[in-house]
Amino acid sequence: VEEIWIPTPHWSSALLSSAFSPFSFFSTLVVSTCHSLVVGVVGLYIFWFDEATIADPLWGDPSFVKVNIAVSSSYLISDLFILILYWKVIGDKYYIIHHCTALYAYYFILSEGVLAYIGNFRLLAELSTPFVNQRWFFEALSYPRVSKAYVINGVLMTAVFFVMRIASIPPLYAYIYSVLGTEAYRRLGALIQCSWISSCVVLDVMNVMWMVKISKGCIKVISLFRQEKARRSLQNGKLD
């Protein structure tokens, strides 16, 4: 007989009990998910329809992009403080590096008004975050790792993470290579040029590292799901 997860009147206790504690990991993930959806959806609109930055990715009018970058920067700063304040609970050096690198890059977009399209392109990576956070929600609610919901989310998390954070790497560096030596690139100045490339390298190294971990986890979950499915089929066959 297939096991089915059924919510009970107390199913949310794992979430609500932590939501009102001095430190609420639940609350931070809710905010993280909301942030990623807002900047991700707005980022997609800019990516497809913002004519100014599409026409000139390096120097196009950054007005609309600045709003999205400012929202993301505000979230990163608040999350950075939470990471430091509750270091013993959720501290992670890679998140610190990620947040500081992103904020450093965003500074030039907000202050100098350059690389708006590139900055927005990097923000699209946030569209993978809701699936990453959903994994924690499933665990907090004691979903079996072999449940269909858990497996489907794992597959989607892996696929979206790959598309948004890994598959986007070659086009980005191909574009960087294509503008090297151009007048628009020279106008950026050495500091912004180095900051642009170095921040991208740092973020992409971490994305590749996380992609490897996520892929291994996804393969493991799919394997467990198949084993459980085979076990149930065998068990049902014996019952018949």
From TrEMBL:
<keyword id="KW-0472">Membrane</keyword>
<feature type="transmembrane region" description="Helical">
    <location>
        <begin position="69"/>
        <end position="87"/>
    </location>
</feature>
<feature type="transmembrane region" description="Helical">
    <location>
        <begin position="94"/>
        <end position="118"/>
    </location>
</feature>
<dbReference type="GO" id="GO:0016020">
    <property type="term" value="C:membrane"/>
</dbReference>
<feature type="domain" description="TLC">
    <location>
        <begin position="21"/>
        <end position="223"/>
    </location>
</feature>
<keyword id="KW-1133">Transmembrane helix</keyword>
<keyword id="KW-0812">Transmembrane</keyword>
<dbReference type="Pfam" id="PF03798">
    <property type="entry name" value="TRAM_LAG1_CLN8"/>
</dbReference>
<feature type="transmembrane region" description="Helical">
    <location>
        <begin position="25"/>
        <end position="49"/>
    </location>
</feature>
<dbReference type="InterPro" id="IPR006634">
    <property type="entry name" value="TLC-dom"/>
</dbReference>
<dbReference type="InterPro" id="IPR050846">
    <property type="entry name" value="TLCD"/>
</dbReference>
<feature type="transmembrane region" description="Helical">
    <location>
        <begin position="150"/>
        <end position="176"/>
    </location>
</feature>
<protein>
    <submittedName>
        <fullName>TLC domain containing 4</fullName>
    </submittedName>
</protein>
